[in-house]
UniProtKB/TrEMBL annotation, chains A, B:
Any Pfam family hit: Fe-ADH
GO MF assignments: alcohol dehydrogenase (NADP+) activity; butanol dehydrogenase (NAD+) activity; metal ion binding; methylglyoxal reductase (NADPH) (acetol producing) activity
Residue stretches making up the Alcohol dehydrogenase iron-type/glycerol dehydrogenase GldA domain: 9-175
Protein name according to UniProt: NADP-dependent alcohol dehydrogenase
Domain Fe-containing alcohol dehydrogenase-like C-terminal positions: 189-384
Species name: Tolumonas osonensis
GO cellular component, one term: cytosol
Swiss-Prot/TrEMBL keywords: Oxidoreductase
Amino acid sequence: MNNFSFRNPTRIHFGKGQIAKIREEIPADARVLITYGGGSIKKNGVLDQVHAALENITFFEFGGIEPNPHFETLMKAVELVKQEKITYLLAVGGGSVVDGTKFIAAAAEYPNDPVEMLPTKGAHIRSALPLGCVLTLPATGSEMNGNAVITRWETKDKTGIFSELIRPAFSVLDPETTYSLPPRQIGNGVVDAIVHIVEQYMTYPVNGKVQDYYAESLLKVLMEEGPKALQDPTNYDVRANIMWAATQALNGTLSLGVPGDWSIHAIGHQITALYGLDHAQTLAIVLPAVWQHKKEQKKAKLLQYASHVLGMTEGDDEQRATQAIEKTRAFFELMGVPTRFSAYGLDESVIPAVVAKLKQHGRLKLGEHGDITPDAVTELLRLAL
Amino acid sequence: MNNFSFRNPTRIHFGKGQIAKIREEIPADARVLITYGGGSIKKNGVLDQVHAALENITFFEFGGIEPNPHFETLMKAVELVKQEKITYLLAVGGGSVVDGTKFIAAAAEYPNDPVEMLPTKGAHIRSALPLGCVLTLPATGSEMNGNAVITRWETKDKTGIFSELIRPAFSVLDPETTYSLPPRQIGNGVVDAIVHIVEQYMTYPVNGKVQDYYAESLLKVLMEEGPKALQDPTNYDVRANIMWAATQALNGTLSLGVPGDWSIHAIGHQITALYGLDHAQTLAIVLPAVWQHKKEQKKAKLLQYASHVLGMTEGDDEQRATQAIEKTRAFFELMGVPTRFSAYGLDESVIPAVVAKLKQHGRLKLGEHGDITPDAVTELLRLAL
């Protein structure tokens, strides 16, 4: 096991009716900006619950934060923050709203043009407004970490930023708020959380047993509960298990002292930025290709996954490793997320475009060994056509 | 799954050489009191590493905190804190030193006689000195929670206290510091951590899958690695896995949204207070008795444990439940911790004494159903003779 340092001070309020806890978290004299996305929170009663919790607290609203939140949109919110002297941000929505709100929190305090924050991946963030979160879509884990992914629409660039300063002070996770999600978002969320886990797990063994077994635990939960969420959308325990698993998947616990891959995300981000595919769709396309391409390097962990998560006992090592990849692909398809470019009307012309974007961002050495070069990406993406 | 709120802001520095990180955590102008136990940290080089990390910081030392730390001893440290105007406490040792130091942190700021804190279980703690920790014995989980257990020697009372204010700001976990532990302390530590886990797991199912699978993960790690630590005391990865599992076992994650038992600890504490047995020894005696006595109520989880942790597939439900209890007992014995009163030279006369202590403390309704009455304790302890 490798050395690590770790701290995660976000407070979680989990369960039915917990939106009311916002009142305990936000100072009574705060000037709050509620941020949200396409407006589903107005239909499913979530915004009403938030308003009730903020009774007698001054608040404003900013809607329309899109999936893969755009720098250009978020800068409009920054203007509103400055104009109304906002002191607290409250993100109400899924990972895009939370990520976008993290960017707003830092950009509102950034002394220069906030576009500078993107190439530095947040390294130059020195202060940020406090923020809280009401999560309505379990997927990204953004509710309990300091990460955000921002898309600059003008240049079709999608960049991850990180700072301890943009970690939510608190997050409310009420599984009932997820009942009204369309199946596509349920499928996407489960796939996204699974790929977060395996980016921290499907590498090479360093005998980090707690981390490995925790990762396997979360994979089992998501693979057991995901299909049930599609079949029985108002089953509370199913939604609760998925929601808590997705948060745990990227709250920092799994990556402690073990290597990470993250090539699947790096490649996927370019596909979304270029072609607008859902984030999880890109991951579902890229994962089987990366695993197939790196099967020998990842074999020890593929076999551990085949045994501990998928319960496979038949066949030799080569067969089980291959089957583990194919069973993962089949699970994504079962969740309604196709795993090949062709299913999205895309062909081999995507490959040079994606590779060019990776080169532009200097992402020339991806994966846990740093050996997924642009040439390797070209080769592996052919497995995803 | 039940509702929960959760926050754990303790920072962990894990790994070889991480004692040096103390320097980043403690303010340069602090007046530090290093607290420790019997002095093993002077022999194994840990104290030297701490001194090096505190170079140019003013520090004092207070040794002699005993296992099951005594109120009477800790009050001497409180005097020293006041006399030397200490501003930061640094516990260097195992759970007893950490627990004792938590008490010192609160007692030093307590306006009345600190003996008052014990019957209130810490409810009246309003402030405490900041504290950090260098853990040298993985077992109690005290390094990442706000719990402490204090023994009042004069009255033979052992009381748990809790406050967010006595949670360590940081803890250093260097597995190499555990190499010099005697086998008895290794065995005790693994048993203690296992019992922490099952107090939060071996109850009744509420479909908290992440919590259940995490608990099973930690049980597997401890059962796989525990015997290796006895056989191969300087295997770094073995020590690292045990150390991180023991911390995870009681950092709050496992108990979220699920019922807890804690009868094993409640009964065990009285045995230690009365007869001076090691904490883990009392748990190893009481656990099989409680599980046997409550086999019907706990059967669903006993069978889940038999399957997921012990890999049992043979026999009917009754046989597997019984075997799961006996295999757990056998594991404790394998770790060198006997599981019956007779092995410690105690006989049935302990039973009325333990029951009287429980009554004195008002612990009349133990367990996840609150139905382990004094009569039930009398009955179940006969299974432990």
